[in-house]
Amino acid sequence: MFDPEVEECITLFTRLKSSLPRLNSPRDSFLTEWALFKRRAASIAANCINKLLPGLIEAIYYIELSDSHVGRDIDLLIALRDDIKSIDMEEVEETIESLLTKLAELAGLNFHAYTSSPNLFEIHTIERGVYGSKTRLYYAIQLINGDSRI
Prior knowledge:
Elements: H1 4-16, H2 27-52, E1 57-63, E2 74-80, H3 89-106, E3 121-126, E4 140-145, E5 148-149
Parallel strand pairs: 2-3
Antiparallel strand pairs: 1-2, 1-4, 4-5
Helix pairs in contact: 1-2
């Protein structure tokens, strides 16, 4: 029905369901479980982006914009390759967010019970790599470097 890469991503997202926090957990436990889920989901998303959009990505970072490290959505910072010219960054962000949301839906990953955000993932893009960007990374974990997974 789908390409093998898409099927693999759906399978990875399906396995992620077991990592969702228990809704009836005490608040401290829930927040810890949510933070762990976000990190796992970010890793799977980065892997899928790299597989489904080959040649576009220089690096992918999981970034946490919340001071508490338990923000409501999963933020990924994507550094596009230097040789990509004349690309609409906003369109790339929206396309990747839609792609990841669709994969989560196809996998039956019901994240709406955990966040009021319309998308589980929020994508931020930069050009010229991290060091050529004005974006500062305060809390970031590099998930993808070029065409390889870290």
